[in-house]
Amino acid sequence: MGVAGSGKTTVGSLVAAQLGVPFADADDFHTPEAVARMAAGLALDDEMRRPWLERLHEVLVAHASTGLVLACSALRRAYREQLTGGLTGVVCVALVAPPDVLRRRLESRVGHYAGPELLASQLATLELGDDVVTVDTTRPVADVVAAVVAALG
After folding, report:
1. Could you report the per-residue pLDDT of 94-128, keeping only the tens digit for each?
2. Do 119 and 5 touch, CB atoms closer than 8 A?
3. Residue 58: inside a domain, yes or no?
4. Which residues span the domain enclosing 51?
5. How many CB atoms lie under 10 A from the CB of residue 37?
6. Dihedral (CA of 59, 39, 125, 99) sign
């Protein structure tokens, strides 16, 4: 989990491959309307996120017996609770980096709707607490993947 540009898709797909479990990107579960809104630099509100989080919860439920790595912003504790409600063994790993690093990544990425315009609102929304393990993503990707795998036990 983490804000745009934190490396969720890159790291998550590599962690899933290393663990031999499926990978899902929460970005693929947004409606076209939500994608258009974010592409315009407008953050989603909680009402817009609710059905998306419900869809993602169902994905987690469907993979409860086999495992899954889900790359998802899950910025607030309440969102993580909605995602994981009723499930056991879920570990939320927050990928973190300084704002200037995140901004540079977002400015250089191509073909993604979430640009640097969303970064300030995502950072303001981000709640890191005792329900997440944080991993610094300014290190080489292989080191980040190793840290995430270690956090998963």
Report:
1. 999 999 999 888 777 666 666 677 788 889 999 99
2. yes
3. yes
4. 8-151
5. 17
6. positive
